Amino acid sequence: MKLKTPYRFAESTYRVRPINILAIKDELGNVGLGEVEAFQFPNYIDEIQSECVRSLNKRIMPLLGSKDYDTPFEFSRFINSTNGPFMGRAAAEMAIWDLFAKRNNISVQKLMSLAVGDSGKLKTSVPVGVAIGIKSNSQQIIDEIHSQLNKGYTRIKLKINHSYTLKMLEEVRTEFPHVLMMLDANSQFGLKDSSFFKNIDGLNFAMIEQPLGKKDLRDHAKLQERINTPICLDENIFTSEDIWKVINSGAGKIINMKLARVGGIANALAMSSLSESHGLKVWCGGMLETGIGRAFNLALASQKFYSFPGDISASDRYYENDLINETFTLNNGKIDVPTSPGLGVTLNESSQNAFNGDEWIKI
Predict the structure, then answer these.
(1) DSSP 8-state class, residue 310
(2) pTM of the model
(3) 342, part of any domain
(4) CATH number for the domain including 143?
């Protein structure tokens, strides 16, 4: 997937985004789609795209065909037992949820709401925000924020690293004093940088996402004691056990939930419920997904646990060419949630042709 413009994270820059799509077909001809969302290199978490694909081919898919599943939760319990990479497991589970919803003629959104016991009216759209990569100076940041606000985004996330100074952030906040804004450090700082975070306490950022190490909850707890701005945790949250550690340590007040990072939909729903019931806010993060992953995120972000705008962009945000026929457009800061049976999206001609060139493997 070729990005329209290079996207710079805290420690790396992406110009292309390798992504594998998994399709599972049942005996009725229904096809469920899943997306392997790991990056090419281990600069977000340790998992990489090739490792996830190898696990799917060699372990997860061969085991899948040997069992019967009456519900997607039964499959989720199985997939957790394989101990494969979280993002590989998630891709298979996405496809199963899509397939199960299609077999029952309901949307994935509806299936998720039923799974969490929510019988209320489904949301037709969800508020979304946009993440802005690392820039060289405050004017570049300001120009990009203006551009995204003009497109209709109402929440801005700024990726930051050590090149960002208090002065830069003050200049940004002076230009946009009332815009809902947050920071994402992608584990680039240490506890020694506490003074930097204390100094930005008064700039009214909604949260600071993952300021410290990927496996360091203790220092996150120390930092949260020293600052008023809520800490949001991302890279160190994989299981419900990690949520309990945050609850017990006070390492943060908010959880960024990415269904790929936690191994799939069932885990994401369970962990969101646990978080909310113990006073942690939760919102839906993004992974530079294709339209397939974006549709799953919209369904997840529409659930009762989520109110803060997620990292779910419109279709024209990242890629020159997406994989699906449908387009997601921004309307008053929101994107509509697909409501057709299953995931609600279909592969476009070029993507379908890529699948047609391969033989289905019976499992």
Answers:
(1) B
(2) 0.94
(3) no
(4) 3.20.20.120
**pLDDT at residue number 203:** 97
For residue 14, being part of any structural domain is answered with yes
For the packed helices 265-277 and 291-301, what is the interaxial angle rounded to 10 degrees?
A: 30
- pLDDT band at residue 331 using 50, 70 and 90 as cut-offs: very high
Q: Specify the pLDDT at position 10.
A: 59
Same domain? 134 vs 92: no
Q: Quick one: which of 112, 57, 117 has its CA closest to 84? A: 57
Could you tell me which of 187, 137, 168, 140 has the C-alpha nearest to residue 10?
187
Q: 286 to each of 248, 296, 302, how far by Cα in Å?
A: 26, 11, 14
Residue 361 lies in a domain: no
User: What integer is the mean pLDDT of 212-236?
Assistant: 95
Q: What is the pLDDT of residue 11?
A: 65
Please report whether residue 214 resides in a domain. yes
Q: Which residues are catalytic?
A: 159, 258
Which of these, 43, 72, 118, 12, lies nearest to 259 by C-alpha position? 72
CATH number reported for the structural domain that contains residue 75 in this entry: 3.30.390.10
* In a shared domain, residues 146 and 248: yes
Residues 88 and 224 in one domain: no
Region of 338 please: left (phi>0), alpha (psi -120 to 50) or beta: beta
Token pair belonging to 315: 């279709």
221 in the same domain as 320: yes
Kindly report each contact of residues 15-21 with a partner whose C-beta sits within 8 Å and lies 24 or more positions away, as own/partner.
17/288, 17/318, 17/319, 18/49, 19/49, 19/289, 19/290, 20/49, 20/52, 20/53, 20/91, 21/290, 21/292, 21/323, 21/351
345 closest CA partner among 307, 275, 296, 279: 296
What range defines the domain where residue 265 resides?
125-336
Same structural domain, 185 and 329: yes
Place of tokens 């943060």: 252
pLDDT of residue 158: 96
1-31 pLDDT tens trace: 888 888 777 567 888 989 999 999 998 999 9
- How many domains, in total, are found in the chain? 2
Sign of the dihedral through C-alpha 214, 218, 219, 223:
positive
